[in-house]
Amino acid sequence: MPKVRVVFFASLKESIGLSEYIAEVAMPLSIGELKHQLATELDKGQTLLAKGIQSSIDFEFARDADIVFDTVNEVAFFPPVTGG
Amino acid sequence: MILVQEEDFEVELLYKRLVKANKTGAVAMFVGLVRQFAEGPNEDSSFELEHYPGMTEHNLQVIVDDANARWSLLDVCVVHRVGRLHVDDQIVFVGVSATHRAEAFLACDFIMDYLKSRAAFWKKETQGIQSRWVEANTKDEKSLERWSK
């Protein structure tokens, strides 16, 4: 099964208790599908489904409908950004 | 120039970098600082600023590229600090040089607006022994609308 590296940041990293996770997935799949898979696979993964959780594919902001292909290096999930 | 760093920055050095001999007519600069948000008399505000190495720099480059596409600019400099920051510390610097002031003001404002909502930084604030992740401000997202006109 193909693998994808998933990283978490800020409050999401703390609630899930992981900064990185290698997921085995059936590609291609959407960000939304990956999120739901992780929500059932990971302890406290349900926090991924909270409103406002954002994502990126290889450093580009992504949406739930965006597709993760097997060429993807890294997917990230994180809460809304609060810099500046 | 885009820098994400733990170290403090010197505004004067950044200003000198922005000034291009015989060309510059205006430099607009913005500096963001850590506000005092602790309420107790003996408490101090501090932040832990987390970022996503690689993505954060990429996000800032996209914003600067967008500013350069919208206005005729001579140079842009963005410095954002990460790690532990205390009240009155400098957090962020955005500087823009241009031939005329309108472009410099607008681009500086634009870059800060987008940095707030489109760059991978997260603040965790600490008051005394209590810490909490700062929630995103809906006003910040709303303020992007004026640039889409």
From TrEMBL, chain A:
<dbReference type="InterPro" id="IPR012675">
    <property type="entry name" value="Beta-grasp_dom_sf"/>
</dbReference>
<dbReference type="InterPro" id="IPR016155">
    <property type="entry name" value="Mopterin_synth/thiamin_S_b"/>
</dbReference>
<protein>
    <submittedName>
        <fullName>MoaD/ThiS family protein</fullName>
    </submittedName>
</protein>
<dbReference type="Pfam" id="PF02597">
    <property type="entry name" value="ThiS"/>
</dbReference>
<dbReference type="InterPro" id="IPR003749">
    <property type="entry name" value="ThiS/MoaD-like"/>
</dbReference>
UniProtKB/TrEMBL annotation, chain B:
<dbReference type="InterPro" id="IPR036563">
    <property type="entry name" value="MoaE_sf"/>
</dbReference>
<comment type="subunit">
    <text>Heterotetramer of 2 MoaD subunits and 2 MoaE subunits. Also stable as homodimer. The enzyme changes between these two forms during catalysis.</text>
</comment>
<dbReference type="GO" id="GO:0030366">
    <property type="term" value="F:molybdopterin synthase activity"/>
</dbReference>
<protein>
    <recommendedName>
        <fullName>Molybdopterin synthase catalytic subunit</fullName>
        <ecNumber>2.8.1.12</ecNumber>
    </recommendedName>
</protein>
<dbReference type="Pfam" id="PF02391">
    <property type="entry name" value="MoaE"/>
</dbReference>
<keyword id="KW-0501">Molybdenum cofactor biosynthesis</keyword>
<comment type="similarity">
    <text>Belongs to the MoaE family.</text>
</comment>
<dbReference type="GO" id="GO:0006777">
    <property type="term" value="P:Mo-molybdopterin cofactor biosynthetic process"/>
</dbReference>
<comment type="pathway">
    <text>Cofactor biosynthesis; molybdopterin biosynthesis.</text>
</comment>
<dbReference type="InterPro" id="IPR003448">
    <property type="entry name" value="Mopterin_biosynth_MoaE"/>
</dbReference>
